[in-house]
Structures are given as C-alpha cells and as structure tokens.
Amino acid sequence: MAETDQKDAPRATANRSTTPGSDAFKEYISQGWAERPSRATGPREQAAFAAERRARISALHPTARVVIPAGPAKQRSNDTDYPYRAHSAFAHLTGWGSDTVPGSVLVLEPRSSGAGEPDGHDAVLYFREAAGRDSDEFYANPEIGEFWTGPRPTADDVAADLALATRGLGDLESVLDSLDADTILVREADPAITERVDAQRLLLAGPTAADADADPEAALGERVERDADLARDLSELRLVKDAFEIEQMRLAVAATRQGFDDVIADLPEIVAHPRGERLVEGSFDRRARAEGNTVGYDTIAASGPHACILHWTRNDGPVLPGDLILIDAGVELESYYTADITRTLPVSGSFTEVQRRVYEAVREAADAAFAIVRPGIRFREIHAAAMEVIARRTAEWGLLPVSAEEALQPDGGQHRRYMVHGTSHHLGLDVHDCAQARRDLYLDGILEPGMVFTIEPGLYFQPDDLTVPEEYRGIGVRIEDDVLVTADGCESLSAGIPRTADEVEAWMARGAR
Ligand code: GLY
Ligand code: MN
User: Fold this and answer.
1) How far is the CA of 453 from the centre of ligand 2 (A)?
2) To test the ligand 1 pocket, which listed residue (332, 338, 456) has its Cβ within 8 A of the most ligand atoms?
3) Are residues 149 and 180 both part of a single domain?
4) Minimum mean pLDDT among 132-141, 227-236, 471-480: which range?
5) Separation of 421 CA from ligand 2 center, angstroms?
6) How many structural domains is the chain composed of?
C-alpha cells in the first residue's frame, strides 16, 4: 500500500498521528470495501448558464489559456481551517458551489481552427478525485482523507453534474509546467498556483528575449496587467444576472426573511442575555446554515449606539429595551449567491417619536432611490436621489450648518457626516459583487435589466456627536433592500420583508416565526 505523501498533509504532526503502522493493519484496512454507486444527478441547472459565461470569457480572450483556481483551504490556526469557500469567479464559470473540492482549477484551453484562427476554448476542470483504497490517504490523511473529511466525488460524477470535462489534479502539473506566454490567471485565488505561473513566465521571458535590454521583471509586469484585465472581465461578466442567478437571489432573500423572523421570535431570550447581540447572530446563523450554506458575510447585530458603527460585527453587546437594533444579514445559498438585507427594529416593539422620525426619513430616502430605478439611468443617480432626502431632512431638523441646497453642492456634503457610506452596491456571488468592474460600467454605469444591487441608505448619529441634539445621539438606522432591474423599472426582491415603521411594529407584535 502506498504511504501518504506528506506533501499532501503538511500539518499532520507526529503528536496526533495514532494511525497504526503495522502491516497487519494496512493489509486489513485496504480490503472489504463495497463498490460505490455513482453520485451524479445529471447536469445541474446552472451548468448551461456556466457554459454560456465561459463562452463570453473565451470570446474576450480568444488566444489565451485562462487559469481560474478555486483556491485552497485557508488556515485558521495550526491544523484547523476556515470553512472552505471557492473563489467566486471559479464558482461563476463552473457552477460548482459549496461542494467544490478544495484546490480545484478550471483551465480554458484555446482551440484553433484548421486555418490557425482562434476557435473558442476547451474547458477542463482539474480536481482531486476520490482516492482509491489502494492508497492510505482515506484513513491516514486528516486534511483530505475520506475518513476525516468525507468522500470526494469521482471525475465522472463531477463531469456529469457540471457538464464539464474533468481530469485529476495530478494532470494539472504538466499543464503548469508547459505554459506558453499567452496564459492569464485569476491571481488572488490560489497563491501557490500564482507563484508557479509567475515563475514559468519569468523563465519564458528570460531565454526568449532576443535583445540585450530584455527585462524579465518588466515582462512579468505586463503579464500581471493582463491578469488584471481578466479579473476586470470576470467582474463585469457578473454585472447582469442570468435567469439562474435571479432565481438564486430570490431564494436567498426568502431564506434571509426567515432568519429575520427567527430573530424577532427569539427577542425575549435575546433581551434577557447580557450579550444579546451574539444571540441575534446565532439565531440568524442557525437559519442560514439550515436553509443555505452559511451567511454571506459576518452578521452585523448592532444594538443601541453600536448601530452607528457601520460594520459592527463583534456583536458582544446587550440588546436593551427602548433601543433600536440594526441587523444587517444575508443567507448565502449552497450556490454561493447571497442576500444582503438590513432592518432596524425597536427592541420594545414600538418606535419612540424621535426613533420613528429618523427611521421614516431613511425610508423616504430609500423610497426616493427606488422611485428612479429603471434601465437607462446611471447607477450613481440612485445614491444622489437618496442623498437629496437625507440632506433635506437633516437640514429641516436644524443639524446642518448650511442649507440642504448648499450641502448638496459638490463642494458641500455636510449631510454626509450622518451617512458616510454609499447607497448601493451590486450583489450576487459576493456581497459586494463585481468589485473589479470598471467605474464606467459600475458607479458611472447605465442600469440594465437583470442587474441586482442593494438600496441601503442610513442615518447614524454618533453618541458623542455634539452637532446633534441629545435625543438623536446613539441612534443608527439603516434600511437595506435587494433590487432587481426589470425591463421598465425595478422589483424589490425583499418587498416581502416588513419595511415601513408601521409594518415593522406589526411584525414585532406578531412575534414572527
Ligand atoms: N452588508 C454590509 C455592506 O453592505 O457593507
Ligand atoms: Mn449592503
């Protein structure tokens, strides 16, 4: 029987290695195993969509070999890892989600026609297949062995599920050793692969450079720029969602709604605990794990003045009667698509007069943003529409040193003291999706049907802000919905989650679940 290759399990230490080494044991454990039936269920619904996405990347890079790693498991501490998450570009182009085998790599190999013209790409998915019982991996390797982390699919199963050609990870070695100059890759996904590709590129740049001034580092610089172009293209490919993605977003929002219902149902217990915010996080997480893969980002459970800390994820404070609690959370499905919803709830069930005033101003800002969303407007106009309301309301309350009109001038912005973040971001596989898209297509981009993004204005009055009357201090409100651009307007995917102050109070009175 083959011994475990320690390169495959670098963190297995002698102190934890209690696997018997006797020949009798090895002989005995290698036999008596039944054949496994295929686990393939036929092409997944997303397979055809992923093929279409690959075709679009192929058309943008007709001659390049394109390398898209899923990425390795990431170490948390010593021999424990973070829960595995494949790179979003890999998930997008393969349709493989939470059951991705860590370390997989998608390679698009350029084809050429008989006349030498580019002719699309062949997609090959390299991954670590199920290990046979003729190796000791299955029982002796805590990182990847079947007895430790569960069985892996066979190449045939993955090929059938994703409608992709598959090969073992070992075959990737010869691909990486024989790269030509026209190779581009997703750099951030797998540092070890990036290092290998760069090393190969330097080798190629050196001996083949004819003139004496040839500078391998500069040659690499040019390659890195081409990698950045690929990252941009992969991001921009996700700006408009296809039918599969839109359905996933609906499902993610529906599961998220259940998570918020759970939090409301658990409020009595939450209020009774000194770290109630943690219980909020736990209630939501329970639902996210039950209905989806996990949360799409760390839940923000921000009670009282914590709501003024935009990304409060420590969540170790109490949830006190009379305060508001801002909950920003989203369920990520097994396909990795995530919702991103914020609701701000009055812990006691009803808003005070000042809390309601702030809440309804934020809702008015969100409504103003919703009202303009349709194909043809610019993405940044959504923010401007919301900010106009924020400026007018804060001016009306006497909080600004200038008029709303002055604050809204390019050289003003005083109202932004109370809302320093943007109003919208694209949403999908990543909570902040399409992050490497060009500004021309994102912030300055024109809306198209199929785009999905958030509308999430807020008002945050820091507890030590001397520019606001005391009654406002420590109040933070954000209302965040997920929006789909339609042919002639938009649809709020989260319209079913109570949103106005009255609806929120009724929701809490019902004690949802
Ligand atoms: N949900 C957190 C954010 O959008 O930044
Ligand atoms: Mn958001």
Assistant:
1) 8
2) 456
3) yes
4) 132-141
5) 10
6) 2
The encoded tokens of residue 49 equal 């969509």
Average pLDDT over residues 58-68: 97
pLDDT above 70 (res 3): no
Q: What is the largest CA-CA distance in the chain?
A: 86
How many angstroms separate the alpha carbon of residue 285 from the centre of ligand 2? 17
Question: Which ligand 1 atom is nearest residue 340's CA?
Answer: 1
What was the pLDDT predicted at 17?
Answer: 67
Q: What is the CATH number of the domain that holds 394?
A: 3.90.230.10
Cβ of 340 closer than 6 Å to ligand 1, yes or no, is yes
Let me know how long the chain is.
513
Digit-coded pLDDT (tens) for 37-46: 888 888 999 9
The residue ranking higher by pLDDT, 222 or 266, is 266
Both 207 and 356 in one domain: the answer is no
Tell whether pTM > 0.90: yes
Q: How confident is the model at residue 7 (pLDDT cuts 50, 70, 90)?
A: very low
pLDDT confidence bin for 212, thresholds 50/70/90? very low
Task: Judge if the beta carbon of residue 482 lies within 6 A of ligand 1.
Answer: no
Among 311, 423, 427, the mutation site with the greatest number of ligand 1 atoms within 8 A of its Cβ is 311
Q: E strands along 79-217, which residues?
A: 80-81, 105-112, 118-127, 165-168, 183-185
**For residue 351, what are the contacts with CB-CB under 8 A and spacing of at least 6?**
324, 359, 501, 504, 505
Q: How many angstroms does the Cα of residue 427 sit away from the middle of ligand 1?
A: 10
pLDDT given at position 215: 60
Query: What b-and-e string marks burial along 152-163, b requiring 16 or more CB atoms within 10 Å of the CB?
Result: bbbbebbbbbbb
Q: Are residues 150 and 294 in the same domain?
A: no
